[in-house]
Design brief:
Blueprint: E1 2-10, E2 16-25, E3 30-34, H1 41-48, E4 56-61, E5 64-65, H2 74-78, E6 81-84, H3 96-106, H4 111-124, H5 140-152, E7 158-162, H6 170-185, E8 189-193, H7 197-202, E9 207-212, E10 215-219
Parallel strand pairs: 3-8, 3-9, 6-7, 7-8
Antiparallel strand pairs: 1-2, 1-4, 4-5, 9-10
Helix pairs in contact: 3-4, 3-5
């Protein structure tokens, strides 16, 4: 599903942020991405959702070589990837319902086809009563849950989440993790960047990808 070979990233003429990153994630895999602040976790996620090209090395996604993939193919590739950003990226002029349903709307589906599913998902993440609210009146935790719902509503083949439980209480964090685990059980490859070691231990089947000093190691589940 995802394969990196000796990938390096540098910004401008500065030192490499990531060095010789090599790993494989099989289809249906589950991995946590961890490491100190500033280690390069967000940069690695950007590479995986095609928001950044590597300075060197090879990246394969869905069997395609990203380096030779025509830019016109990127939108189709990105539609297979759900992303939860740290800054949420909700559209303030759309309601919570409309924000969550946006990937389905862009895909050409009619509201009558997805309204029930979107409302069920909003209820699951605790936003059933906020379907008609606009992002400016939502709390940080509510925005985060809306962003998570939007990322998974289309049942993506890959889900990438950057600190998805950073603004919620521990009980809701566990509930959201169950949602990620269930999505993974249905076949979605999941990668979650997190500092929360309790979260790491709550999904023992997950692999642990740790970035330190620009290099990555991968181990079996549990706290690294």
């Amino acid at each position: 599903m995802i394969r990196f070979e000796n990938v390096g990233v540098r910004y401008g003429n500065g030192p490499e942020i990531l060095r010789d990153i090599s790993f494989e994630l099989e289809e249906g895999g589950f991995a946590f991405l961890t490491g100190p602040s500033g280690a390069g976790k967000t940069t690695l996620l950007r590479l995986m959702y095609l928001g950044l090209r590597p300075t060197r090395g090879l990246i394969h996604m869905f069997g395609e070589d990203i380096a030779t993939l025509p830019r016109r193919r990127f939108p189709d590739m990105r539609r297979r990837i759900g992303v939860v950003f740290q800054d949420f990226r909700l559209l303030d002029h759309l309601t919570t319902f409309e924000n969550v349903a946006l990937p389905l709307f862009v895909d050409g589906k009619r509201p009558s086809e997805y309204a029930d599913d979107v409302m069920e998902l909003l209820s699951w993440v605790g936003l059933g009563d906020h379907a008609n609210a606009y992002p400016p009146v939502l709390s940080g935790g509510e925005k985060q849950r809306a962003a998570i719902a939007r990322a998974i509503v289309g049942k993506p083949r890959v889900l990438l989440a950057d600190e998805p439980t950073g603004n919620v209480d521990p009980a809701l964090a566990r509930r959201l993790l169950r949602l990620f685990v269930e999505l993974n059980r249905l076949g979605t490859t999941v990668v979650i960047a997190t500092h929360d070691h309790q979260l790491l231990n709550a999904a023992p089947q997950a692999r642990i990808m740790t970035i330190r000093d620009g290099r990555l190691t991968m181990t079996a589940g549990g706290t690294p």
